[in-house]
Automatic annotation (TrEMBL):
It comes from Syntrophobacter fumaroxidans (strain DSM 10017 / MPOB). GO terms for biological process: glycogen catabolic process. Allosteric enzyme that catalyzes the rate-limiting step in glycogen catabolism, the phosphorolytic cleavage of glycogen to produce glucose-1-phosphate, and plays a central role in maintaining cellular and organismal glucose homeostasis. Phosphorylase is an important allosteric enzyme in carbohydrate metabolism. Enzymes from different sources differ in their regulatory mechanisms and in their natural substrates. However, all known phosphorylases share catalytic and structural properties. Pfam families: Phosphorylase. Belongs to the glycogen phosphorylase family. This is Alpha-1,4 glucan phosphorylase. The keyword Glycosyltransferase applies.
């Protein structure tokens, strides 16, 4: 062991300068981990052993940077961002960390030299699917950018034992399988059994007078759970900053309640343990509101309380007084899921640290920022008062007190406007009473932001209108972004190599520099190389599709792709209506000269969302018929790619020709898949919704396929009375498509199967598919025309990539840092291992 330590010291020494690392170092480190960590000789090592050894080899290099980063936290007293999110959809670590360490090619070479298959190791990694979709993935992109921009930051969340379910398709239906991502161990996390906090639940409160004669409240809980920290290092791209993601696991305070055990209540003693550990057991698989589930509120309060206690401990450890907490930390609430933090920080400051209310409120109001991610009114989070009172009685008292003081202020500004006061109140009092979490987040935050220009404007005029009128200065827009490290460099090495060959690699950190590609759009040789890269990516995806679905697709056809959570507002079924329309054209005219298309879908439906699951069944049923109809003759293929996740996304975006971003205008807050597609050279067909608006602004109207109603038109038509049936009756193509689905043609003659979907379109059509149908189909025809001219298409694709600079998460994080968090970078200097431990 002693010998091993001294060897590691040496290898870390050469590692201090990034360029100083040799292939020999890497190979030696790998073999040491195989031997000392996995206990294997090369001849008996499994693929998992190889993966683990590679992961530890890479992790060693992360940890060296991590300790240097932490040293600066303590020494420099820098302001730190605390990013609170119930979800972090990280995706696999190994490849990404190799990119950020800038050793990808070296590791590949080191592996190849000794006949080890790096791709098999990369493929072997189970991804931590600790999120549902866009919101969780955004948190992961932001961690990457924070580290890359050298901003001291900690991500705080929950270490779910089971992440988002694995999706299987059986007989066309979605089947959910438990995600056992920890089964083979997780080399990227470091358990910190000594970093723990107690979290109280339930019980009651009682008032008392403290020594100074002040009225205070004492909370006597009936349950206490312990949170244990598990840390994952998050390294920036080609910098020494290595931040951390700290996830909390719930455990019982005592693993056995010996009092119960001794009186023979063995079951009762174990029950307590099982109950406590349930809190971090599983991620709720809903990408919209979860109604009234106590366990969900327990999860939220659990991770928020642990995280705030942790930040307070760190703050006190550097010798600062809590009055200055907001000067040392900026805490962002990723949606309302962590918004109970407003009440919890007040409780910690007032009850546990004996601060007076006004000072505590000043600190609280200045430390938080709140990001809203949804306009759907039904998705706004609220908790039944009774449930809240039972679980968090002290927090409800605090919320009442915040509300009393807040509404007093409001009454001064708007005397006699009781309707407005009722809307602003933290408590919804119409019928059953609820705590409104968005209102709590707004009142308790210094800054409130939406995630795309249109979304922020709609927030100001709809769901948060009253708050905007009250505090316009708190509102700003922060258009989402995605990290080009994972979504270009890692997932599209071919494109990265091609771009590097012309404009170097500076764009990876300064994405605006992709602009320099514009001049190559007219370059024949460049366009041919571009097409070759795309074709290669499509061939790779075709192979994966064959492996996963048994469907063989033609890489020369246009890859028309819609991957995202399945939701009626995202309108996967509008895409299906187009597919059926194309199919009807082929049936009517078997000799039709139609541009060959492969329409690919992917995404998970919330297990309790019946319509979304029926849409999956519809896609698979249409695919089954179309793919087996000899009359189609390979001009149309339909694929449902099962289990869409970060790992498969990395193979899908680079292979797309056409990106489907077709939500009803005004419903998609931003979208981030739209950005990933476009960065990888797909053209977008989309509505003026979310960030599509800004993507179109950037790439130019000529390079974007626009269709559909605007958000304003949607609102106007709705208010005037929308009648989908009259559209159905007056449009023969639409009617034919809907009737074919309704007839049982795709459901082995069963007309009932898709009836709920057909009826919802004909009699309600909440998301206005019928209103947008013709405009969509016409636009798709323009897409096909454009694709036939492959040179023109490629020119447009190059311009799309060249103009995506704005959508780097680095830009977004810079805006948050400057305008919300007021934090600045801290360059971390590497120090030798020997000097660090001295
Ligand atoms: O956040 C998404 C938005 O739909 C998308 O437009 C946006 O780009 C993205 C990032 O800003 N929202 C989202 O993914 N929401 C969830 O996943 C989610 C998860 C859980 C709950 C609600 C929403 N929940 O209530 O538990």
């Amino acid at each position: 062991m002693a010998q091993r330590k001294s060897k590691k010291t040496n290898s870390n020494k050469t590692d201090c300068s990034r360029t100083g690392m040799t292939l020999i170092d890497l190979n030696r480190c790998f073999n040491e981990h195989l031997f000392y960590t996995q206990g294997r000789l090369p001849l008996s090592a499994t693929l998992n052993d190889h993966y683990m050894a590679a992961a530890y080899t890479v992790r060693d290099r992360l940890l060296h940077r991590w300790v240097c980063t932490v040293r600066d936290f303590i020494r420099e007293g820098v302001k730190v961002v605390g990013y609170l999110s119930a979800e972090f959809l990280l995706g696999p670590h190994l490849g990404n960390n190799m990119i950020n360490l800038d050793i990808f090619d070296e590791v590949r070479e080191a592996s190849e030299n000794v006949g080890r298959n790096l791709d098999a190791m990369l493929d072997h990694e189970e991804e931590p699917g600790l999120g549902n979709g866009g919101l969780g993935r955004l948190a992961a992109c932001y961690l990457d950018s924070l580290a890359t921009l050298e901003i001291p930051a900690i991500g705080y969340g929950i270490r779910y034992e089971f992440g988002i379910f694995d999706q299987e398709i059986r007989d066309g239906w979605q089947v959910e399988k438990t995600d056992k991502w920890l089964r083979l161990g997780n080399p990227w996390e470091i358990p910190r059994p000594e970093v723990t906090y107690e979290v109280k639940f339930g019980g009651h409160t009682a008032g008392y007078c403290d020594d100074g004669g002040c009225y205070r409240s004492r909370w006597t809980p009936d349950r206490v759970v312990r949170g244990i920290a598990y840390d994952t290092p998050i390294l920036g791209y080609k910098v020494n900053t290595c931040n951390m993601l700290r996830l909390w696991k719930a455990e019982a305070v005592e693993s056995f309640d010996f009092a119960s055990f001794n009186v023979g209540n063995y079951y009762g003693a174990v029950h307590e343990k099982v109950y406590s550990e349930n809190i971090s057991k599983v991620l709720y698989p809903n990408d919209e509101q979860i109604q009234g589930k106590q366990l969900r509120l327990e999860q939220q309060y659990f991770f928020v309380s642990c995280s705030l206690q942790d930040m307070i401990r760190l703050h006190l450890a550097i010798g600062k007084s809590l009055e200055y907490f907001h000067e040392e930390f900026a805490i962002q609430l990723n949606d309302t899921h962590p918004s109970v933090a407003v009440a919890e920080l007040m409780r910690l400051l007032v009850d546990e640290h004996h601060m007076d209310w006004d000072t505590a409120w000043h600190v609280t109001r200045n430390v938080f920022g709140y990001t809203n991610h949804t306009l759907l009114p039904e998705a706004l989070e609220r908790w039944p008062l009774r449930l809240f009172a039972n679980l968090l009685p002290r927090h409800l008292e605090i919320i009442f007190e915040i509300n009393r003081r807040f509404l007093d202020e409001v009454r001064v500004i708007y005397p006699d406007d009781e309707a407005r006061i009722a809307r602003l109140s933290l408590i919804d009092e119409q019928g059953e009473r609820y705590v409104r979490m968005a209102n709590l987040a707004c009142v308790g935050s210094r800054a409130i932001n939406g995630v795309a220009k249109l979304h922020t404007e709609l927030l100001k005029t709809t769901v948060l209108k009253d708050f905007y009128e009250l505090w316009p200065e708190k509102f700003s827009n922060k258009t989402n972004g995605v990290t080009p490290r994972r979504w270009m460099v890692l997932s599209n090495p071919g494109l990265t190599r091609l771009i590097r060959s012309r404009i170097g690699g500076g764009w990876i950190k300064k994405l605006d520099r992709l602009k320099r590609l514009e001049s190559y759009a007219g370059d024949d040789a460049f366009r041919r190389e571009w097409q070759a890269v795309k074709t290669g990516n499509k061939q790779a995806l075709a192979a994966l599709i064959l492996e996963r679905t048994g469907i063989s697709v033609n890489p020369d056809s246009m890859f028309d792709i819609q991957v995202k959570r399945i939701h009626e507002y995202k309108r996967q079924h509008l895409n299906v209506l187009h597919v059926v329309t194309l199919y009807n054209r082929l049936r009517r005219n078997p000799g039709l000269d139609m541009l060959p298309r492969t329409v690919i879908f992917g995404g998970k439906a919330a297990p309790s969302y019946y319509m979304a699951k029926l849409i999956i069944k519809l896609i698979n049923s249409v695919a089954d018929v179309v793919n087996h109809d000899p009359a189609v003759r390979n001009r149309l293929k339909v694929v449902f790619f099962p289990d869409f996740n970060v790992k498969s996304a990395q193979k899908i975006y680079p292979a797309a020709d056409l990106s489907e971003q077709i939500s009803t205008a005004g419903k998609e807050a931003s979208g981030t898949g739209n950005m990933k597609f476009s960065m990888n050279g797909a053209l977008t067909i989309g509505t003026l919704d979310g960030a599509n608006v800004e993507i179109r602004e950037e790439v130019g109207a000529d390079n974007f396929f626009l269709f559909g109603l605007t958000a304003e038109e949607v609102a106007r038509i709705k208010s005037e009375g929308y009648d989908p049936r009259s559209i159905y009756l007056s449009n023969p193509d639409l009617r034919e498509a809907i009737d074919l689905i309704g007839s049982g043609f795709f459901s082995r003659g069963d007309p009932d199967l898709f009836k709920p979907l057909v009826d919802s379109l004909l009699y309600q059509d909440e998301y206005m598919l019928l209103a947008d149908y013709q405009s969509y189909v016409d636009c798709q025809d323009r897409v096909s025309e454009a694709y036939r001219d492959r040179d023109r298409w490629t020119r447009m694709a190059i311009l799309n990539v060249a103009r995506m600079g704005k959508f780097s998460s680095d830009r977004a994080i810079r805006e948050y840092c400057r305008e919300i968090w007021r934090v600045s970078p801290n360059t971390v200097e590497m120090e030798d291992f020997g000097d660090l431990v001295r």
